[in-house]
Design goal:
Helix content is 3%, strand content 53%. It has two helices and 17 strands. The strands form four sheets. An eleven-stranded antiparallel β-sheet has the order 1-2-4-5-7-8-9-10-13-14-17. Strands 3-6 form a two-stranded parallel sheet. β7 and β8 form a beta hairpin.
Length: 257
């Protein structure tokens, strides 16, 4: 982190991570058909599966606005994943059958995936007890599967299954006893995998959450909170074929000692 001035700060972050294969991916669990070979399809681990290597970079600039009681920030992001680990796809046979062995599905390293994005955010206070925060993030993902492979078929279609836009807006107010918070979360359209390993479109959506709390000044807080308040049921993961998130309203009593 570099303090350019009293109001300006720059953060530089570089990181490298490893997505190690699981024991299942390496072969601790194998599923074989009950029929005699070559009828049926086996699911096998791959002891030669390599870890996926993830390299990411971030550059963030934050500017304070003390006269307004606020601050704003811009963050640029870039990430590359190499040796992407694919899932087992029943849409592609990985090991052909022979007269005495089953055709088999397995886990493979199938190329790379690149992500670049930008995030703009701000937060601050207004008047007595009021506060706000807002942010929006845009990402652009490019999948680069190895020749002969398809990212959708191999269950690693990050570009198709990731929303390009995510945004949040929060407003709150607090006094001696009351605390009120509400937030909006917006996601642009994307795709989600179905049970048949195909993509199902999910429309962009907006959700609203809120909380009202009252402090009894005896270590007890009464609160009413809710999630998905705009609709009774809303598709957030899968389209027509998936379960929908339900509206939830909860009342809580919290005691602190």
């Amino acid at each position: 982190m570099i303090a350019v001035s009293d109001a300006d700060t720059i953060r530089l972050i570089a990181a490298r991570g490893v997505q190690a294969p699981t024991l299942v991916e390496l072969g601790s669990r194998q599923v074989l058909p009950t029929t005699a070979p070559p009828t049926g399809v086996a699911t096998l681990g791959n002891p030669e599966l390599q870890p996926a290597m993830v390299t990411s970079y971030e550059v963030a600039f934050e500017h304070a606005l003390p006269k307004l009681g606020a601050s704003v920030a811009v963050k640029l992001m870039a990430q590359r994943t190499e040796d992407v680990k694919s899932g087992v796809s029943k849409l592609q046979i990985d090991i052909p059958a022979t007269a005495t062995t089953y055709p088999a599905l397995t886990y493979l390293n199938i190329g790379k995936s690149d992500m670049k994005g930008v995030e703009v955010s701000g937060k601050g206070k207004i008047g007595k007890g009021f506060r706000w925060n807002a942010d929006t993030t845009y990402v652009d993902i490019t999948d680069g599967p190895s020749p002969g492979y398809n990212a959708v078929v191999r269950l690693v279609a990050f570009a198709a299954t990731s929303p390009k836009w995510r945004s949040n807006l929060g407003l709150g107010w607090t006094d001696d006893r009351w605390t009120v918070d509400t937030s909006l979360h917006t996601v642009s359209k994307f795709n989600s995998y179905t049970a048949s390993q195909k993509l199902d479109p999910v429309k962009g959506y907006t959700t609203m959450a809120g909380r009202v709390g009252y402090d009894l000044k005896s270590g007890i807080t009464l609160a009413l909170s809710g999630q998905n308040l705009l609709q009774e049921r809303q598709a957030q993961t899968k389209g027509v074929s998936g379960l929908k998130a339900e509206r939830q309203v909860l009342f809580s009593i919290t005691k602190r000692w």
